[in-house]
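Aim 2 progress update. The chain analyzed this quarter is reproduced below.
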Amino acid sequence: MTRPRLHLFDMDGTLLPGTTAPVQISRQLGLEAETVALDAEIGAQRIGPPEYAHRIHALWARLTADHVTTAFEGAPWLGGIRETWAEIRDRGDYCAVVSLSPSFFVERLTAWGAHAAYGSRFPAVPFAEPVDPAGVLSAAAKVKIADRLCEEFGVAREDCVAYGDSLSDVELFGVVPISVAVNADRHVAGLATHSYVGRDLREAYELVRRDR
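Predicted structure tokens:
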């Protein structure tokens, strides 16, 4: 009997090609340029996830739940996300999103069919509390969450497929047998077992659908 598989999706740069959730959120506040600069800093490893979270939290002092909803609904998502996750579910497999972006954005993807969605823990919007560095995710945290999901769903690492695009996905790509570099940069392009360039998740999923 074939065991179910767990498909693990990154969000920023992967499900959101060419952009990130913080950039989409900041656009609602007229602060897109500032956030693009922050993304460049963390991408170049000049700052780490905790400092990034602290600075983006400060930038979002005026953020409301309506801003987040508008950003989520208007973001340039890959095509076919809901359809891909519906097929994964129909096959008896599992799908989850693990992202370093704020959980209040990432968790909305469960409504699209993800079995689970994890992001960095931020206080509720509008902010009345500081961000707790202990709740901010890292690349290593992606592996820990993947292991926790494996236990929850009764699968093993060898049953996992990872989809990602950049440095934060390197550690996860290193511990799973199948990985898909989606519109990826140099950090993961050479690590993945499969590579996809395009705008539809169904096409990326097709690369591994029959790959056991």
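The first helix runs from residue 21 to 27. The two ends are 12 Å apart (CA to CA). These observations will guide the mutagenesis experiments scheduled for the next reporting period.
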